[in-house]
């Protein structure tokens, strides 16, 4: 198994396992409740991914990309200020 496939499988497993946890959406409402530094690291990791090597028709990949989109929206809403470059 290639290194990329191992990373992709690990990422997918993480996304699936964390999305299955039930919690109150109000947890994400206030900026001070979010760890913006940690979210910034996730955003950087997502930007560095080589999407050309991914099978975008794979249902697990579609789910992961949808989750990443939601994470990006949440990060933009709660962590990015008008004076930041993110």
Structure description:
The protein has helices at residues 3-19, 36-48, 59-78. It has three helices and no strands. It is mainly alpha-helical and 86 residues long. Helices cover 58% and strands 0% of the residues. The longest helix is centred in the C-terminal third of the chain and has 20 residues, at 59-78.
Unreliable residue runs: none
Distance between the termini: 34 Å
Pattern of helices and strands: HHH
Cα radius of gyration in angstroms: 14 Å
* Sheet of most strands: none
SS element count, helices? 3
Shape: globular
Strand composition percent: under 5%
Output the structural class. mainly alpha
How many individual β-strands?
A: 0
Secondary structure: helix percent = 55-70%
pLDDT averaged residue by residue:
75
Please outline what is shown here:
The protein is an all-alpha fold.
Summarize the helices and strands and which ones pair or pack:
Blueprint lengths: L2 H17 L16 H13 L10 H20 L8
List keywords for this structure.
86 residues, mainly alpha, 58% helix, globular
């Amino acid at each position: 198994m290639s290194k990329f496939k191992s990373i992709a499988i690990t990422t997918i497993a993480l996304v699936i396992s964390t999305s299955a946890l039930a919690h109150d959406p109000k947890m994400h409402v206030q900026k001070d409740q979010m760890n913006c530094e940690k979210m910034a690291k996730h955003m950087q990791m997502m930007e560095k991914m080589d999407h050309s090597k991914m099978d975008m028709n794979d249902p697990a990949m579609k789910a992961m990309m949808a989750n990443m989109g939601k994470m990006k929206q949440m990060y933009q809403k709660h962590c990015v200020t008008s004076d930041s470059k993110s």
